[in-house]
Amino acid sequence: MSGCYYEGAGNTTNCYELYNKASLSPDIDLINNIVEQTVNSMGQHVNYYVNTYNTLSADNIYGEQPTSVYNGPHDLKIYIKLTENAFTLSKFGFSSEDEVTGYVSINGYLSAFNGKNVYTNLAQEVVPKSGDVFQMVEYGNDRYGNRGGNFFEITERTDQDNAELNPLGGHYMWRLKAKRMEYSWQPGLTGERGNEQVYDDTFSGILSSTITGQLSSDPKSYDYDVNTISQTVVFDMSINNTSLYGDY
Predict the structure, then answer these.
(1) Domain layout of the chain by residue ranges
(2) If both were cysteines, with which of 4, 31, 126, 184 could 15 make a disulfide (CB 3.0 to 4.6 Å apart)?
(3) Which CATH number applies to 25-180?
(4) 74, 79, 76: which is closest to 43 by C-alpha?
(5) pTM (2 decimals)?
(6) In this predicted structure, what is the pLDDT of residue 131?
(7) CA-to-CA distance for 77 and 228, rounded, in angstroms?
């Protein structure tokens, strides 16, 4: 030891440290095992999708990579705290959506992707990142009707929080923040089951028929014209000079 940080009463030869990470390595290994076992026993199975966006092959002017697809699903265990209808966001003008805080064992994540080449092909380290997506398939597998597990997009990854994540200074897990994902036909993902847009069917629209090309009732009539309303209620642009270049 290079220095004496504490001398007991009358002790001038042996030095003691209340905290020394090197000497606490057996305890850190024990906590690491406990964290992994806790996530494996109390966590939920999710389908995890890796966002394969890569800055090397993306168009960074527009910030997009049309050829990027989500790689998965990969089975992963996450200890989840779900907050449905996150009203904390509404005061900032955002719509109230579900949000998730998830805890992932580092060893468990590495094991889930052991032998898979997705990160090797991306030339990236094996870590969860913002933009990755997971579906809570185990939580949503017995929902009523045709509904299924919700999709969540990761917005934040944290591995250091001394008050919560790092007892004895060790690094055992990642804390993930995620928000409910709005599906917009991303390659590699599917929409949530039962999350359908309004459409005209027998219940809410025209009556169906078993005869091909035939309808049992006339289609709905949508006679609303926004141009007519604009001319009568707002102002009539047809009597104004709307030329972009004006008069020459």
Answers:
(1) 25-180
(2) 4
(3) 2.40.10.270
(4) 79
(5) 0.71
(6) 92
(7) 56
